[in-house]
C-alpha cells in the first residue's frame, strides 16, 4: 500500500469500506434470521447468505496482502462448496422436507437433461423421484463440499513445498490435474442443484426461489468463471504488468477488486430477497397433503 498513488489509495479505501458494510449487513441479516426463521431452516439460510460477504472479505484481504492469495482462495473455496450443498438442502426444506417432497412428487420424475453437464442430451430418460434419487442428488453436492477443501489444502501443501505453481498448466505439473478434478466435481454439484431447481421452481415460486437461484448463480459465475478468465488473460500477458506487480499479480488484484464490488451488491440484494417472512409464503398444498400441518402452520 506504500507504493499507491492518491487514486489507488482512494480505491482501496472505498473497496475496504464496501467490505465492512457487507459484513455489517450480513450480521444484521443473520440476527434477523435467527429471531424470525424456524430453527429447521435457520442455519441453512445463514450459510447461504454468508457466501457473498465471506468472498468479499477474503478478496479484500487478498487485495491488501497479495501473498495471502492461496489462503484467501482456500477459505472462499470452502464456503463456496458448502453453500452449493446448503442451497440444495434449502430447496428440499422449502418443500416441507424430504418426506413431504416425496409425497408431493410421488409419481413425478426428475429431468436430468439440464445444465451444466447434460443440457444438450435431450435423449436422456427422466428419472423417478424416489428416496434413492434424492440421496444421489444430495451426494452430488456433498462430495463437492468434502473434496474441494481437501484438494485446495493439498494445493497449499504442494505450493509451500515449491511443487505447485498456480499458473503453470503443463501436463507435468500438479496444477492442471488438480484444477481439472475440481472442475469435474464442480460440474457434478451444479448439475445436482440444477436438476432439483428445475423440478421445484414452479412450486416454490411463492418463496422467491427464482431470485434466490439467480443470486446463487451469480456467485458461481463471478467467483469461478470471471476469476478464471481474468487469470487466463494474465498468464497470456493480455493484462500488462504494472510495476511492482507482475501480470499474474495484477490480474489477481483486478479479480479481487471486481469481486468485492460484486459481492457487496449481492449481499445487499440477498438481504431484500431473504427478508420475506417464510410462514407467509407457505404453499397451500402443504396443508392439504400433510395432516396435522394446519396446526403447525403459524
Helical segment count = 10
Query: Can you identify the CATH class?
Result: Mainly Alpha
- CATH topology-level fold name: Rhopdopsin 7-helix transmembrane proteins
Unreliable stretches (pLDDT < 50, length at least 5) are: 283-298
Return the average pLDDT rounded to an integer: 80
Strand content: under 5%
Count the domains: 1
Separation of the first and last Cα atoms: 54 Å
Largest sheet data:
2 strands, antiparallel
Summarize the structure in words.
Pfam families: Solute_trans_a. The chain crosses the membrane at residues 12-32, 44-65, 71-89, 135-159, 174-193. It is a multi-pass membrane protein. It is found in: Membrane. The protein has a single domain (6-277), classed as Rhopdopsin 7-helix transmembrane proteins. The chain is an all-alpha fold. Helices cover 71% and strands 1% of the residues. The longest helix has 31 residues, at 6-36. The protein has a two-stranded antiparallel ribbon with strand order 1-2. Helix 2 (39-64) runs antiparallel to helix 3 and helix 7 runs antiparallel to helix 8 (247-273).
Amino acid at each position: 500500500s506504500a507504493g499507491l498513488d492518491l487514486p489507488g489509495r482512494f480505491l482501496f479505501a472505498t473497496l475496504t469500506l464496501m467490505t465492512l458494510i457487507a459484513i455489517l449487513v450480513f450480521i444484521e441479516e443473520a440476527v434477523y434470521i435467527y429471531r424470525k426463521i424456524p430453527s429447521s431452516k435457520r442455519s441453512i439460510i445463514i450459510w447461504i447468505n454468508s457466501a457473498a460477504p465471506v468472498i468479499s472479505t477474503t478478496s479484500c484481504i487478498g487485495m491488501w496482502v497479495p501473498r495471502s492469495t492461496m489462503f484467501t482462495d482456500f477459505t472462499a473455496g470452502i464456503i463456496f462448496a458448502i453453500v452449493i450443498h446448503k442451497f440444495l438442502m434449502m430447496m428440499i426444506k422449502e418443500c416441507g422436507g424430504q418426506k413431504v417432497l416425496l409425497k408431493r412428487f410421488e409419481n413425478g420424475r426428475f429431468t436430468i437433461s439440464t445444465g451444466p453437464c447434460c443440457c444438450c442430451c435431450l435423449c436422456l430418460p427422466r428419472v423417478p423421484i424416489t428416496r434413492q434419487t434424492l440421496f444421489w442428488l444430495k451426494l452430488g453436492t456433498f462430495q463437492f463440499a468434502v473434496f474441494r477443501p481437501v484438494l485446495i489444502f493439498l494445493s497449499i501443501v504442494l505450493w509451500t513445498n515449491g511443487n505447485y505453481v498456480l499458473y503453470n498448466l503443463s501436463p507435468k505439473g500438479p496444477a492442471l490435474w488438480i484444477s481439472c478434478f475440481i472442475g469435474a466435481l464442480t460440474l457434478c454439484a451444479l448439475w445436482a442443484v440444477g436438476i432439483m431447481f428445475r423440478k421445484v421452481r414452479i412450486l416454490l415460486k411463492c418463496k422467491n426461489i427464482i431470485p434466490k437461484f439467480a443470486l446463487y448463480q451469480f456467485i458461481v459465475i463471478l467467483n469461478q468463471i470471471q476469476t478464471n478468465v481474468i487469470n487466463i488473460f494474465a498468464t497470456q500477458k493480455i493484462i500488462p504488468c504494472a510495476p511492482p506487480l507482475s501480470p499474474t499479480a495484477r490480474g489477481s488484484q483486478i479479480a479481487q477488486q471486481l469481486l468485492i464490488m460484486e459481492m457487496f451488491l449481492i449481499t445487499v440484494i440477498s438481504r431484500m430477497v431473504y427478508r420475506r417472512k417464510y410462514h407467509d409464503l407457505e404453499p397451500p398444498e402443504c396443508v392439504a397433503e400433510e395432516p396435522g400441518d394446519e396446526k403447525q402452520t403459524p
